[in-house]
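HUMAN:
Just now I want nothing more than another pair of eyes on a protein record. I would be glad if you read both lines and explained how they fit together. I have put the entry right below:
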Amino acid sequence: MSTTPTTPTPDSKAPHYPDQVTGMYILARALKNLGIDTMYGLVGIPITEFAYLAQMEGIRFVGFRHEQQAGMAAATHGFLTKKPGVLLTVSSLGFMNGLTATTNATVNCYPMIQISGSSVREPIDLDQGTYEGLDQLNVAKGLVKAAYRVNKPEDIPTAVARAYRAAISGRPGGVYLDVTTPCLGAIMDRADAEKLFFQPVDVCPAMVPSPESVDRAVEMLASAKKPCILLGKGAAYAQVDDKIKTLIESTGVPFYPMSMAKGLMPDNHPQSAISCRSTIMEKADVVMLIGARLNWLLSRGHGKWNPEGKFIQLEIDPKEIDCNRPIAAPVVGDIESSLDAILAKLQGKKMAMDPDWVPSLQAESKAKNEKFLQRLVPQTVPMTHWSALSAVKKVLEAHPDTILVNEGANTLDDTRDAIDMFLPRHRIDCATWAIMGMGMGSTVGAAIATGKSVVAVEGDSAFGFSGMDFSTICRFNLPCTVVIFNNGGIYNGIGVNPSNNGDPAPTTLDVKARYDKLGDAFGAQTYYVTTPDELLKALTEAIASKKPSLIDVQLAADSGKESGHIGYLNPATLIPFTV
């Protein structure tokens, strides 16, 4: 963090309290006026005093070690609450560190506002080499949903209201608010400042779909022989859980949840087709997408999908329709309004679904689930991912109200497959971009936003992106347990450097690392475990304590499969350990 003084503002006289206030005060009041009660960030020039003023106004400030993690916390807060999570950063590189998270929030449709202080405008515009002289607004514009700059304190309430509205209306996303140093330090008479505040009206209006689109979708769903409802994280974000339950159970249509939609309906529900992805793709004649996009996670609608199948898509952004494959029945509107209209039209409607469709999926699910569970039986020492997950599964499924944060390579994939979810918005992971390094930020954001216990199951490589912000969990005494699967590498710890020059392979980390010592450094409860029984006992105890805890799980170095190869560029003769 830089300690170089900023360029003095034109009016450097201190305000005469209580008759005068600064732009920082106006910014804090404007946020509080819109119901913002929490802010994540990392202070320094020029926003340190603002963080103190925000605390004085009753806004909780959660300080981090790195802006990216603070941003991941804000994004997770937005996903779980439907209110914008707020990130506060310094200028220049602090701004850019945070922008990674704000861009990720935009891609994943999480409502979030990044507020960054910025340097004096004139020398930036003339490229005169001022202190941290980055044109932050123009850097951000192409990466976020909306971006605004505030140069005068009189404009702060308007800018905050516009940022809030942009973040949550339509398809949610990340918004950047650039507040210059002169604006933050500007002085106004309190009486004049108080006149600026207002309460925005209807900041997230309903977007009701056309009756014609609803009729078309209902007719297509009702006439389908082998339909499926596919749930995305947008369906979880909408918080219309009862309406989704009614749709699924009243129609009898099987459902498939994407990763962060797990638990929206219980994974073990009789209509769950979570174990039948390939069959759904190959055989479904009508697929209703609710809060999901036909992006790479769904092979962009191609690959194994039934070429004769048709899609119904409930989507708030018309630009998403026909993005990768023609959508036969687009329903453009917000999810709640769309479901209300569809459920009304379905009243008394007879479904033409093949009576053998759901039973066949149930039989397939039973067989596949029984086969899958055999992976968890061997209680190997050193542990594999599967033997470790046999313990984690028992504990987390016995504590369904615990929020699970999950990232890594094999650790992400295997945990998603192994652990059933039973409640909505209780699984947070790296989502659409599969970005590693969201772990500690999302863990903090989930705990702060909900007050619930959180367990983060992390690969050792993924934990390395954000590990120092485990200290934030400890500093705020949050009920969070971090479980680190250490197999000593990216994918695994058995990589071989083909040059034999003594350096580690690109994928090799340290299988002997003792991550529990990091927990000791910050006063957490720590555990180092080498068997499934030890892990089960440690995780049970850690969750029950509701205290910051870190569990170092020792895996075998050869546990985990390597991925990321581009076929002909990676011949077996070059990488002999390819699996």
Q: What stands out?
A: The longest helix spans residues 357-373.
